[in-house]
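User: I'm writing a tutorial on reading structure tokens. Could you give me a worked example: one chain, its sequence, then its tokens, then a sentence or two explaining what the tokens reveal?
Assistant: Sure. Here is the example chain.
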Amino acid sequence: MEIIIFTGPPYSGKGTQCSLLEESLGFSHISTGDRIREEKERRSPLGKIMATYEEKGALVPDQIMKDMIQKIIEENLDEKGIILDGYPRTISQVDTLFSLIDGKNVKVKSVINIEVPREELLARSITRAKNSDRKDDQDTTTHEKRIEIFEKETRPAIVYMKSKFEVSDINGLGSIEEITKRISALIKI
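And here are its predicted structure tokens:
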């Protein structure tokens, strides 16, 4: 199995791009945010714990994420590949991912980092809030907090990933189609 990691700030279009590439690659799109929301909606023990973090815009603790990612990898070992959207988000999660795939027939095919300026991210967050039924998208202070957490926690993880393997920085401005073409050229679809 191969893994394509998508990273970038909140509202950068990761989910949109992952969904578009899922079909053309024959990989499964795994959104960790969607998985967290599913757990919360089912009111599973894990979901109840996750809810306390997610609704505040905070990152779910690494150990809880490790358990979820391990389950995702095990569920997909027989697949061609997965597009991992929203993980890893911290330096320790990068190391955790490596430990979870070590010794398995799994490799990271590529890492795509979508870059979008802060002003554009905030504009997109407002649009998403208007078009979304997600409770966690309705509070504008949560939008700011998500971006701040990205800069504090995930930006260093991206730099760290660059020391492990090639990370492709993609300009996330432009039409959805233009961004998809940039990404497709890098992963040679």
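What the tokens reveal: The longest strand covers residues 107-115. The two ends are 17 Å apart (CA to CA).
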